[in-house]
Design brief:
The protein is an alpha+beta fold. It has 3 domains: 146 residues, HUPs (Rossmann fold); 55 residues, SH3 type barrels (Roll), CATH 2.30.30.280; 131 residues, Translation factors (Elongation Factor Tu (Ef-tu), domain 3, Beta Barrel), CATH 2.40.30. The strands form 3 sheets. The protein has a 6-stranded antiparallel barrel with strand order 9-12-11-10-13-14. It is globular. About 4% of the residues have low confidence. Its EC number is 2.8.1.14. It is an enzyme of class 2 (transferase). GO terms for molecular function: ATP binding; tRNA binding; tRNA-5-taurinomethyluridine 2-sulfurtransferase. It catalyses: 5-taurinomethyluridine(34) in tRNA + S-sulfanyl-L-cysteinyl-[protein] + AH2 + ATP = 5-taurinomethyl-2-thiouridine(34) in tRNA + L-cysteinyl-[protein] + A + AMP + diphosphate + H(+).
């Protein structure tokens, strides 16, 4: 399948699609099977890429892989495969499927190889699509797959694994995104002392947790937040600065693989489960509950409250909620058992019950950082001294 043609870009030729197609041809010839070449460039542009650039222009950091799996691979491509007479649709994802004997929806499970598990990217695909799907690599490690490929004499056996966003290729991301999103320089502001540290190249080129790349400073600074309206990128010194960590977040428009929320949430009870806020993050424990409405979030914002045992919520001052926050099919409040680094608006927060992937929700904004909590404690102590 072809989703992107780098030759259409300024200075094109960045994608490896042509080489990938040649490799696929050689593998099919070796195995004696027919290769079908399907073009989804138009559909990918309208259903994946336009959303990707729009979200970046809003200061978010979307993940196009989840949209691609939902709208292209496990929708258009799956449908085409079945129309061509396929009994099953097999892909090379490192994930597993479970088909309950008592009936019920197909469950998505994490792959055996924890380092290569790709269930995170499949969390936006519904169980109905999985009915005709096979993941033959899900029960194997990457090393075992390479050994099998070598034993079969496949030309791709030693091919380097793909990484990153396919259409970006080996370019610097800021060079790529500047072709599609208007970039306006603005200030880097250090959260310690509210000092300016020079100019960034454009807010869309930065995401939470990444090294800011500020020249002329003695130690590396990292992005801890963004103020899109004022074109400010907030930074802090050191990869473990407390401004990078928080214990809560709000996520919007949750998608449940089974088609409905877990029973605890349906009954109005909090759900204790595991989560990933980015690919290859280790599973961490959290508690999830529905927020009644975005008005409730706004009220708690204006009051400056974030009660541990209430549904009221306050965001980080370094990352105010976007004006486009929508209720959709619900807003989730997530409380992390341990402080979590670089909770990034626009990224998928994927929930798990053991190995079972429950679904995904898009992070709207993180709660107050540990740095802000520490500041508040210092202010309260100072206020008590002055009384």
């Amino acid at each position: 399948m072809r989703n992107w043609d780098a030759r259409d870009e300024a200075g094109g030729g960045h994608c490896s699609a042509d080489q990938d197609y040649e490799d696929a041809q050689r593998v099919c010839e070796h195995l004696g099977i027919k290769l079908h070449h399907l073009d989804y460039q138009k559909k990918y542009w309208t259903q994946v890429f336009e959303n990707f650039t729009q979200k970046f222009a809003m200061g978010l950091t979307p993940n196009p892989d989840l949209d691609c799996n939902q709208h292209i691979k496990f929708d258009a491509l799956l449908e085409n495969a079945l129309q061509m007479g396929a009994d099953k649709f097999a892909t090379g994802h490192y994930a597993r499927l479970s088909r309950p004997q008592c009936g019920g929806p197909v469950q998505l499970l994490r792959g055996i190889d924890e380092d290569k598990d790709q269930s995170y990217f499949l969390a936006s695909v519904g169980s109905a699509a999985f009915e005709r799907v096979l993941f033959p690599l899900g029960g194997l490690t990457k090393a075992q797959v390479r050994d099998l490929a070598l034993s079969e004499g496949l030309v791709t056996a030693t091919k380097r694994s793909s990484a990153g966003i396919c259409f970006v290729g080996r370019r610097k991301f800021r060079d790529f995104i500047s072709e599609y999103v208007e970039m306006e320089p603005g200030p880097f502001v250090c959260v310690d002392g509210n000092t300016h540290l020079g100019l960034h190249t454009g807010i869309a080129a930065y995401t939470h947790g990444q090294r800011a790349g500020i020249s002329g400073v003695p130690k590396p600074f990292y992005v801890v937040g963004k103020d899109v309206q004022n074109n400010v990128v907030y930074v802090a010194m050191g990869a473990d600065h407390p401004a990078l960590f928080c214990t809560s977040a709000v996520a919007g428009d949750p998608f449940w693989i089974s088609g409905s929320p877990p029973k605890q949430l349906q009954d109005g009870q909090p759900l204790t489960c595991m989560f990933k806020a980015r690919y290859r993050q280790s599973l961490e424990r959290c508690t999830v509950c529905f927020l009644d409405s975005k008005n409730e979030v706004a009220v708690s914002q204006s009051m400056g409250v974030a009660g541990k045992h209430t549904s009221e919520f306050r965001s980080s001052d370094f990352c105010r909620p976007p004006h486009t926050l929508e209720e959709g099919t619900g807003l989730l409040q997530i409380r992390f058992e341990e402080p979590t680094r670089a909770i990034t608006p626009g990224q998928a927060l994927v929930l798990y019950d053991g190995d079972v992937c429950l679904g995904a929700s898009v992070i709207a904004y993180p709660g107050p950082s540990l740095f802000e909590h520490n500041q508040l404690q210092e202010e309260l102590i100072q206020a008590s001294v002055n009384i």
